[in-house]
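hey m, so remember when u said the tokens were messed up on ur end? i reran from scratch. heres the input so u can diff it against urs
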Amino acid sequence: MLRKLMSKPAGLALGTAMAGLLALSSCDQQDLRLERARDLADSTLDQLSGRTIVEPSSPNALEAVDVADRAIAGTVRNDMNFETASASSMFAIGSIIAKPKNIPPAEAMAVVEDDALFLEDPEALEEVAEEEVALESAPDADMDAITAPAPAAPSTTRSLTVQPARVMPKIKLDPAAREQTLQKIEEASRELEQAAANEPAPVKRTRSLNTRSLESAPVIEQKAARKLARRSVISRDAITAQRDANSVMLDTLSKYGMGGEVALSREGQMVIQIGEDGASPTQFTPERAPRSALQNFLAVDAKLECPDNPDMMQVQSSPVLATECIVKDLRESGQFEYVEKDYIFENQFARKPTPDTPTTGTGVTPDVITDASITPNDPLWDLQWHFQNNGSGEGESIGGSSFQDFWTRQGTEGSEDVVVAVVDTGLQLEHPDIKDSPNIAPGWDMVSDPRMGNDGDGRDSDPNDPGDLCDPSVPYAADTFHGTHVAGTIGAAATNNASGVAGGAWNVKIVPVRALGKCGGRLSDINDAIRWAGGLIPAEDEEGNEIWNDNPADVINLSIGLFEFCPASLQDAIDSVTERGVIVVSAAGNARVATQYYAPGGCANVITVAAGDARGVIAPYSNFGPEVDILAPGGDLTRDDNGDGRPDGVLSTKAATNCYDPLTGDAVEDCYYAFEQGTSMAAPHVSAALALLKARDPDATPDELKATLLAAVSPRSAQQCSGSCALYPGTTPIEGSQGMCSRPCGQGLLDLALVPEKMSSGGE
């Protein structure tokens, strides 16, 4: 065994591994099992501390490939840890999200029902179809634009949209120049009204409109019709409500002697940034309120209450109190449907797993793998237990989700006509298993704050992930490159290319939408990212031009989390896309609590995914509860139940530096794959499964796809969805099971082998 000097952070990992060892010992296992458990304890310690792991004695798939391909990074120790960030939510100081009352629901430009298109403006379809033709006929060389920042202006003409000076103007609110500010509000409102007047009218819910059958329509026209059905337009009523709300915001800021800036959204959401420049608070200086660089714009939510008669000097000297007071005043004005702080979401890596008492027996009947089974030639496939068929035979995993069975029996590995948007940290576009992948479509960077962007600017056309490390001074902290791992599981990784790892949906189209950056992601950015991914609102380039998502999502993956009840603005964003046929998949969260306390897993209209281990048992870190819809592989790095000599994490794409080779223990300058764990890893399995179901049944409705998904599950016993009562306070004891409590984990474990084969007639 190759060993290196143990580091300070190893204590937690040692406790974790030894607790698993003791649990196994108590079960009176055979000496061989105990020996393997000891090895696992050692390897887990080294894995979690970034040190050398045990050199395996048996050959494995990694030996056949170059060191650059086989090098696998150890688990990242991020500085946003469970004890602080997850237990207490954070928010952006001086950033507030609000939606005025009486804004009508956003209206779509078209309605598609029963393969019939209802359209008020017949020319609109032709114009969008022309866009599709332009995109389809673009030379292959355009793929270079996917892996590099796109040009500032859109490559195709969009005659459907009028491009004003700014798509959705930002309005300065300056109490010291009240009359001029009111005039600017009026000017911005008129500008938006002009843009609305020049856009095609939204479709009314009537059948007296122009109807066009899509049954026999060309594919281009079908795609254009569905894009129109998702796209919403600026509402004049919304513009009026936003104008009135701006006046209320101006009055509120005047009360405290502060300035600010308001950004408007087509969907009615408004984001106000307290400060003259819309970034830093006017009255808050380091001299008056000494704070670290991080604390200058982020704060832990201590649920501070603003007094009824606050001291103005105190408010002006405290950015946190000022934020709370302005939120309170806006809520009490009666002008708004909701007002809330701009919360900070984290990715859902489980960074500090807590062991649970193992359960025994899965009750899973092994499937039979034949020589005819489709097996990708990616050399790391054998380590991807999470995709393998559900069973206990050779090449199977009792915690597997049976993607291999689906590929084989259903006759599809996915379709480029199916789009999955990954709202996350972005994508490492130069990753060797991604840069040449045909599955990557143009995305967008929605991180608005340059301090969180970590790339020198705000929103732009480059969704590349530059890293998300929050505080470099924290020992052993590193960039997570979380979105790359998530997207790789769905299908960003090129599959069956004799390199690296496989993805769940081989031919799916992935749209990377960067909404999390340094220290996490703002709620306001995430809301816009969801709507842009669904094709409902445009982004905006540096010149103010509208940039629509030309590949509106069928599925949106949210492997993100916030320890709060579902924020109203987030629910609003989710509802706006699901109403137009997008399926939203969410990680349940890794706080070991009821999912109702976590967002977006606790939101309505999402498929909430809990994490299971290689035994098909709910992972110890996973959230749980009635809000959970399904259990999917998320991994558990404290165990090796499949006996491959490695902790049972989910293996996917992720580029990092200063790694180690798990075969030799040698240092490796660059590595490209990693075992990770978390509900973040579970959710993309479900997104990939939905992409496969959509590819198999292109005409299936979202409700039909969901029903098929939730029927393709292997039921879990009470013991398989349980945990130690001592570790999960408030849970319900399981009768006849000493010390174990129920942790509801959905309708069962994702098992695509249970999807019935599609009949040749098109029915099931």
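this time it looks ok to me. The chain has two domains: 90-346, 381-713+720-754. if urs says something different then somethings off w ur setup not the seq
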